Amino acid sequence: MAETFGTLGCVVRHEWRLQRRDLVRAFMLTVMPVVLVLVLTPTYRQILQLTGLYGGNGSEQAVPGFAIMFAMFMGGEFGLPFFRDFGWRTWQRTRTLPIPVPILVAGKLLVPLLLVLTQLAAIFAVGVAVFGMHVAGSVVALAAVLAVFGANVVAVSLLVTALCPTVAQFNAVNNILTLVFAGLGGALVPVALLPTWLQPLAPAAPSYWAVLGCQKVIVEGSGLSQVWPSVAVLGGVALAAGTAGALLLRPDRGKESWG
Amino acid sequence: MLQIADLEVHYGTHPALLGVSLVVGRGQVVGLLGRNGAGKSTLVNAVAGLVKPSRGSILVGGLDVRGNARATSAMMGVSPQELAIYPPLTVTENLVGWAALAGVGGRQRRLAVREVLEAMGLDRLADRPAHLLSGGEQRRLHCAMAMVGRPPLLMLDEPTVGVDPPSRRALLDYVGTLASAGTAVLYSTHYLTEIEQLGAYTVILHRGRVAACGDIDSLVRDFSGTTVEIAFSDGSPPSVRIPVADPDGELPGIIAGLHGQGRALAGITVHRSSLEDVFFRVTAEKELVRG
């Protein structure tokens, strides 16, 4: 067990050494939602006041909504390095090392997971400090929802990576899934404002459970005992997507990268 | 260190290796020769666990690679045919990172990296990002990654493609040094002179089979041999070419015999065959057999 963790640590350090060379994308995906919160919070305030959904200054919708949407964009942080390794032919070469493939993949997953969690934490911190978002409920419950959602994003990204043979397909699918899940799940506008025929489909999007969990804590003042359905659904989807991704990821099958 | 027995690999219905057997002992260099598509890279990849054999066995350090992949991988350093380095990382970072992944730990890792940097002439490039290296320098780094930590079994697949002569000499010298220290080396190349410089036991693959194998002298003797060309000054034929096993021992008798027939000799030339002659002869013969 200690040897496995030691090997995993080596893979994570190596992956971080590579990813830290280019954190511009991660930085942009953290700054951009903050800019959108700044621009659109007044609009959300008016919408919430007109519809009477709930009070607040609009940041209660804008901050979790954009944070969740851009966390899904950040999911590409897993897929792109994976395709990058195929382009450099280092994926094939690492398979000659005494490292089991599951540990190689897990090591590659952990770095983007940490990036997604850092991104979410930064956006929520700015939301509270700059945009006056008041968290009425348990911060621990909020952190639990966001942590499980982060794992969900990375697991779905693993599945998309496993299914897409080319990096172009991966980018297209990742972006489309992000926009569809963000819209359907209530990250862009509250689900109650979606067309009535679309509203029953909203729970099919993992982002719905993330937005729901966040707003239960932020707006309704809930704690862990009230957000467990969100945590359970997000955790279940993460487990299912991660397992499917791991099974479908054929390590011996080549993928087409930009290189 | 490496024992391959009756190995067969198929890509779909296409046979890539058929009944290949070979042994690489500790401290031994085995050179793999063969035309493009002969099966050299497939053989290296099969030992490295990248392709699955359909038949036969591969033992590394006495362990079957099937069922002991982690243990056998820990005993080998592999330099694949295609360049595989991390372009954004410096030369040192590539080597340190790779050594860590290969299980070379702590203080030993630093020493191992320093040794391979010096041996491969990369020490003055240690802090340069790999993407700024020339093609030959990148190839040297690519090979150095396989050598770091002195794995007991080293497999180099066409390691000198695009490498300049001094660097090629440095690489061959270091391979020789590693072999002298007990490393088993499987060395695949198209450059026959490298096999000669390494004094390697040679295996010539052709269409997935071992077409010939042996040390260089025995291959030359068995497959090509030496000939004596004798030119005459007294008419037809102007010269004859006679295969001989031992020119020094046989020539006096031949000359005496020709004198006895009244022939006037104009000159004698001894043609000693090279490994290249053997290679062309072996692969050409197999072409004819196939045709």
* Fraction of helical residues of chain B: 25-40%
Q: Characterize the quaternary organization of these chains.
A: heterodimer
Which chain pair shows the most residues in contact?
Answer: A-B, 22 and 25 residues
Tally of DSSP helical segments of chain B: 10
Give the helices and strands of chain B as they follow along the chain. EEEHEEHEHHHEHEHEEHEEHEH
- The separation of the N and C termini of chain B measures 37 Å
Portion of residues in helices of chain A?
over 70%
**Helix-and-strand structural type of chain A:** mainly alpha
- Which residue ranges of chain A are poorly predicted, with pLDDT under 50 across at least 5 consecutive positions? none
Radius of gyration of chain B: 23 Å
The description of the largest β-sheet of chain A is: none
| Tally of distinct domains of chain A | 1
Give the overall shape of chain B.
Answer: elongated
The geometry of chain A reads as elongated
Protein structure class of chain B: alpha/beta
What fraction strand of chain B?
25-35%
* Average pLDDT score of chain B: 87
The major sheet of chain B is characterized as:
6 strands, mixed
Q: Give the strand order, joined by hyphens, for the main sheet of chain B.
A: 6-7-8-3-9-10
| DSSP strand count of chain A | 0
Which regions of chain B have little confidence, pLDDT < 50, spanning 5+ residues? none
